[in-house]
Amino acid sequence: MARARVTLADIAARVGVSPKTVSNVVNDSGWVGAEVREKVLVAIEELGYRPNLAARQLRRGSSGVLALALPTLAEPYFAELASVFVDVAHDRNLTVLVSQTGGDRAREVEALDGVRLPAIDGLIMSPLGLEAVDVQERRRDISLVLVGEHGERVAGDGEHHVGIDNVAAAAAATAELIAQGCRRIATIGVQDEGPTETSRDRFDGYALALRQAGLPLDEALTGHVHEFNRAEGAVAVQRLVESGAEFDGLLCFNDSLALGALYALGVRGLSVPEQVRVMGFDDIADGRYSMPPFSTVAPGREALANRVLDIIAAPDATAPGHHEVPFSLVLR
C-alpha cells in the first residue's frame, strides 16, 4: 500500500503550531521565530514531507520548472553547461528539465511550443536548426532565452540572447599564441555547411588578431571540419601535416577538436608545446587533465547561467537583444 502523503497539518500537529506557520517556513514567507522554524524543519525531515508542486503552481501561477533544450549531451561542452544550469537553478529553488534536440529544426520547434513538456516558467535553448520565423510564430508564450552563436542570429533584436563575444575571444586566444612566439598559426574548426555561426565568428577573431599583428592569413593553414569533435580534430590536423603546411601554433574552435589535434600531433611525432602550441575553446573538464596540456578559452558558463535565470525571473526588466557575459583565457 502506498504511503499517505504527509501534509502541512501533519507537520503542524507534530510541532504544535498552526498549518499557516508551517506554510510560512516551507515557502520562506511571513515571520517565524528561529526556534519554531528549527522545530518545523526537523519535523519536515523526520516525517519526510514533500511539497505538492501542482498545488503550489496553482497558488503562485508558476511551476518553478525550467526547460533547457540543447543539441546534444554527448559533446562535453553541452553536458557541462547543463550541469551548471541545474546547479545554479537549484540555488534559486528551481528545477531544470534537460531536452536533447539533435540540432533538428522540427524538434527545436516542438520545444518552443512546449510539446512533451509540462508547465514551465521559461525555456533556455541553444538552437542549430531553428529560424527566426519559428521564434516569432511560436505557440507558447513563455519566457525564452537563447544561447549559442546560432541562437544570437535567430534572436535578433526581438528576443533575449546571452553569450560571450566569440570574435573577441578568438582574437584574444590568437593574440596569446602570437605573444608566445607563434608566427604560423593554423586553425581547426572551419565549417563550410550547416549552422556555421560559431565557426565564422571564431575564424573572424583569428583573422583579426593576425591582421593586427601584421601576420598573413594563409589558406593553407585552415583546417576544415564537419562537426566539432575529437575525430574531426585529428583528421583535420592529419590533413594539414600531410599537405606539408608548416605551423607552430594551433587554434582549435573547441576543446574536443583540440584533444583530437593533440592525438594527431603525437602520432606524427610533433611535440607540444615545443614544436606546436595548442589553444582550445570552452575549458571542458577533460582538457584540464590532458597530457600534454593545452590552453583554452573559458566561456563563463556560470555567469551565463546566472544572467539567463535573471532574465527569466524578470523578462520585462531588460530590453531584448544580446546580453554579453565575460570570457577568460586559461593558460597552461
Automatic annotation (TrEMBL):
Entry-linked InterPro entries: HTH_LacI (IPR000843), LacI/GalR-like_sensor (IPR046335), Lambda_DNA-bd_dom_sf (IPR010982), Peripla_BP_I (IPR028082)
Tell me where in this chain the HTH lacI-type domain is found.
Answer: 6-60
Which GO molecular function annotations are given, in alphabetical order?
DNA-binding transcription factor activity; transcription cis-regulatory region binding
What UniProt keywords apply to this chain's record, in alphabetical order?
DNA-binding, Transcription, Transcription regulation
Which superkingdom is the protein from? Answer: Bacteria
One Pfam family, please name it: Peripla_BP_3
User: Is the keyword Transcription assigned to this protein?
Assistant: yes
Record protein name field? DNA-binding transcriptional regulator, LacI/PurR family
